[in-house]
Amino acid sequence: MYTVGLQSAADAFLLSSLKAQVALALLVLFILLFFGFGSQKDGALDDTPVFLPGSHLLAITPFFRRRFEFLNDGFRKTGQSLFQFNMLRETVIVVSGESARKSFFANKHFDLTEGFKMLSGAIPVVKGVTSNLQAKRIAQIHKRLSSVQRNEHLSGLIVPILEDCRRVMETWGPSGTFDPFEKIYELLFQITVRSLSCEELADNPVQVARLKELYDTLDSGTTPATVLLPWLPGPSMLKKLWATKKIYDIIVRAIDERERSGISKPDTLQMLLDEKDERLVIVGFILGLLVAGARATGTTASWLITYLGDHESKDEVIAEVEQLLANYVSPNVSHSLSQQLSSIPLEAWESETPVLDSLIRETLRIAQPHTAMRRNLGPDVTIDGKTIPSGAYVVYPFSDVHLNPDLYPDPWRFDPSREEATVPFGYVGWGGGKTHCLGQRLARLELKLVTSMMLLGFRYSLVDKKGEQLGTSPQPNWNDILLCRPEQDSCYLKHEKSVLSL
User: How far apart are CA 105 and CA 115, in angstroms?
Assistant: First the structure.
């Protein structure tokens, strides 16, 4: 939890003068420089991964800001498929190539939780709630996420998700232009709140907007200093503390409101309460999964809808969804688009939409800039003749397989007709080995519902900031490790409503 001192420090910093903030920032920079010199060994053994040139901490800060570029630079500078660098006193080893990929995903001692905790820093940290969790609590959260995706619960989410789509899309007006990486992401954030929390939050647009604003503060506050020196009360860390405390308070208030009312509602919070889970497990489930789900699914939805703007697959998707409507909706019933789509059963969405499945698969390949992070909690292990010592952090960039031209020719081209590469772990869009996205069933459903509403509800195309047709599709920015947005102001959607009632 948060102590009064930390919260007071955060509030005090935010109200302090610019001079005081600059002074504290300079102090942080000094400490980073002072402690930022690792123990790089000039005479590395033959079985040790080569060190990345440059030993001080400032040389590896791009790992947090421009990771795609930093990792590719490392492979280029070292000329090796594996290299290492120091992060304060910790060893980080970056691996690539088919055999390394197989070893990485197959090793049962490479721990996701420990790796992500050290190297990411993008999840709200509350001791006992989202960090320092016992294995039993982690397993319990995973079990509850599986429960959210049971047939009955998922089927019950279709109507409210489509109603959220209708309500949010109506705010776009009958025609206009918007940035899909803002508006589509906002829609997916709303849907994630609906799917993974409670009606008290999801039915309150002001509260949803506030939560998104606070999570955005967490994202912007994730810096090398906050990840590597989380105990140091620097400007960014205090802002993160403040934002996390506010998120925590909003979630706790919603839980208290439900318990006081005594009214049972058909949502995820009710499921958690009915299971009589500990309060910390309930808060941790909502607080952690809200941001994880919104980021991943929001990024995918934004790119999927963007790619379909001027792609030949758009007509194929429309035909596929219209066939579902013909199969499951009476032609004599005059309902809104969202009501018609809600008549399509879960089983049909999951088993009768191969075009949507191929689009989601290709979008995950090209527009999810994941870097898998693990920590070796087992004994020393050898990968490609190099030793990965016990306790070392191990990193595998998904770009090594998904943007590999030998596996996916012309890898930046969006081509839903591609087949997955047939090499081991030739596609890891939903994870690999013992670690897979536990929420992928929910994510697939959300993506299909949002895309169907967009394609059947609007005519749209890609334009630039002047409103002129784009000559080429935008390219995902893999250095934007959270949202993969393209270059700012490079892409907009020009839309016009194509149905009377969403």
Answer: 13
Q: Helix or strand or coil: residue 151?
A: helix
How far is it, in rounded angstroms, from Cα 381 to Cα 309? Answer: 47
Instruction: Report how far residue 82's alpha carbon sits from residue 49's, in angstroms, rounded to the nearest whole number.
Output: 6
CA 66 – CA 274 distance, rounded (Å):
44
Q: DSSP label at 331?
A: T
Report residue 220 as tokens.
């912007």
The phi and psi torsions of 431 (rounded to 5 degrees) equal: 100, -175
- Distance of alpha carbon 269 from alpha carbon 173, whole angstroms: 33
Inter-residue contact 445 to 157 (CB < 8 Å): yes
Tokens of 80: 């090796």
Task: For the chain, 502 residues long, give each residue's pLDDT as a single digit of tens.
Answer: 333 344 444 444 445 555 555 455 555 555 554 444 444 554 456 789 999 987 567 778 888 889 999 999 999 999 999 999 988 788 999 999 999 999 999 999 999 888 877 666 555 555 545 555 567 777 888 888 888 999 999 999 999 999 999 999 999 999 999 999 999 999 999 999 999 999 999 999 999 999 999 999 888 777 777 777 776 777 877 888 899 899 999 999 999 999 999 999 999 999 999 999 888 889 989 998 998 889 999 999 999 999 999 899 999 999 999 999 999 998 777 789 999 999 999 999 999 999 999 999 999 999 999 999 999 999 999 999 999 999 999 999 999 999 999 999 999 999 999 999 999 999 999 988 888 888 999 999 999 999 999 999 999 999 998 899 998 889 999 999 888 999 988 899 999 999 889 9
Instruction: Quote the pTM value.
Output: 0.89
Helix axes 279-307, 440-457, angle to 10 degrees: 40
CA nearest neighbour of 93 among 103, 104, 102, 84: 84
Helix, strand or coil for residue 94?
strand
Q: Which residue has the tokens 């208030």?
A: 253
Helix pair angle (279-307, 205-220), 10° resolution: 90
- Give the full edge-to-edge strand order of the sheet including 175-178: 175-178, 492-497, 458-463
Q: Give the span between the Cα atoms of 228 and 179, in whole angstroms.
A: 34
